[in-house]
Amino acid sequence: MAQVASLTLLHNDDARPIIEAIMADNPGVRVLDMPGCVKLDRDMELVVNRASVEACIGRTWDPQEIHLVLVSMAGHLDEDDDRFAIGWAH
Amino acid sequence: MTIQIKTIDLEPKRQTFGHIARRLGGDKPASRYQEATLDVQATANFHYKPLWEAEYWQYDTRKTAVVMEDWYKPLDPRQFYYAAYNIARANMNQAVERNFSFIEERGLIEKLSAEAKAQIERGILPMRHLHWGSNMNMTEITQRGYGTAVTAPCIFSSGDHLGMAQIISRIGLELDGQTGASLDKAKETWLGDAAWQGARKLIEDTFVERDFFQLYVAQTLAVNGVLFDMVYKHADAAWRDGAIPVAMLTEFMSDWRAEEGRWSDHVVKTVAAESEANKTLVSEWASHWIDRAIAAAKPLSMALLNDDGKASHTAADAAKTRARSLGLSI
């Protein structure tokens, strides 16, 4: 069985563009709406791309900013200046 | 005893306002920018006809010759609404304050040669009047324009110009030991120095332009694109040994220009792309006003840099390339 990589984000104005970007860039992502948060699950890997988030919000975005809205995560973290990825491949 | 904590997920009845949902094509969460912008301006049922201009209503698409099927197409790529704009500018202003205190602590302006001081007085300080004129123009577009998508960022822009005029005033106060004498002198320069008369004539002519989108093109592509860019980007040599302090104290202007350019370019591009007729009109306006701005920039460039107008040509080429990249034929 594939392991699930998961991000749980607050459901607010700051997180919404990130959620949008994740949904656009990760085919097969499962979205679970919870009160106040959104849990995004995907088999093996989940990626947040800086460029996609920037396209949603119209300004520069540092992948580190995700920590302001990040509630919980599952998977090994792999981050650099352009992406914030979690997964089980490494 | 075990306590089980349960959560109930309450679905909100609607995610956003009806008029926003109709724009987004479905009821989904909208950003603050969208909610503060889309269809905010009133469009019908005005009570009183404005008698000073009885052929129009208060908000009237006929106040410009370009025709848009929907004036909410030219959205702001920066997604500025009141809060986002203020947060962005507060951050930029912090840098301004830091730079001023850095320069003051080290006396970098006091230590400048008399020649550099004179050049800054002649070349930079009169710019506050040009910024004030630009403030007038952006305010005029706000009040004559159509659609919040266009007019809201215009009032932000007019606030920016006022702020930049203040930054220049502070540079003047640094030069004259906080007496304001240099600012009085700069006004005389603006009114009397031959090098500045082209720029003054240009901005004063834009004041009486009634077509709001023509005014927008004149301000953003010509005044910003040629005059401001020439003085802030291509005139470093004019400030002699003051080039670095000037660059620091006008950092706001370059950040602002890069950022506002994204928005103003996008608006011009969207309006020109709407129809052939729009493209022809906007191209005519752009080429008319850019040419006028080049003519106004040349004497300035010669007076400040003694370069036979080279800086004005550089700015002119950049402005034309920019206009062409927006789909205009000039």
* C-alpha geometry of chain A: globular
CATH superfamily of chain A: Monooxygenase component MmoB/DmpM
Unreliable sequence segments of chain A: none
Largest sheet of chain B: none
Kindly state the number of beta strands of chain A. Answer: 7
How many strands in all of chain B?
0
The total number of structural domains of chain B is 1
Give the helix proportion of chain B (percent range): 55-70%
Number of helices of chain B: 13
Question: Could you tell me the mean pLDDT of chain B?
Answer: 95
The parts of chain B where pLDDT drops under 50 for at least 5 residues are: none
Quaternary assembly = heterodimer
The termini of chain A sit apart by 17 Å
Helix/strand/pairing class of chain A, anyone? alpha+beta
Largest sheet of chain A: 4 strands, antiparallel
- What is the CATH superfamily label of chain B? Ribonucleotide Reductase, subunit A
> Would you tell me which CATH topology of chain A applies?
Phenol Hydroxylase P2 Protein
Q: What do these coordinates show?
A:
The complex is a heterodimer of chains A (90) and B (330). Chain A is of the alpha+beta class and 90 residues long. Chain A has a single domain (4-87), classed as Monooxygenase component MmoB/DmpM (Phenol Hydroxylase P2 Protein). In chain A, 20% of the residues lie in helices and 42% in strands. Chain A is built from 2 helices and 7 strands. Chain A has helices at residues 16-25, 50-57, and strands at 4-10, 30-34, 37-43, 45-49, 70-74, 76-79, 83-87. In chain A, the strands form 2 sheets. A 4-stranded antiparallel sheet of chain A has the order 2-3-1-5, with helices on one face. In chain A, strand 6 (76-79) and strand 7 form a beta hairpin. The mean pLDDT of chain A is 93. With 330 residues, chain B is mostly helical. Chain B has a single domain (80-325), classed as Ribonucleotide Reductase, subunit A, CATH 1.10.620.20. Helices cover 66% and strands 0% of the residues of chain B. Chain B is built from 13 helices and no strands. Chain B has helices spanning 18-24, 32-37, 82-105, 114-123, 127-144, 148-175, 181-192, 194-207, 212-233, 243-249, 251-274, 276-305, 310-325. The chains are: A alpha+beta (90), B mainly alpha (330). Chain A binds chain B through residues 13, 16-17, 33-35, 57-59, and chain B through 7-10, 29, 31-32, 76-79, 88.
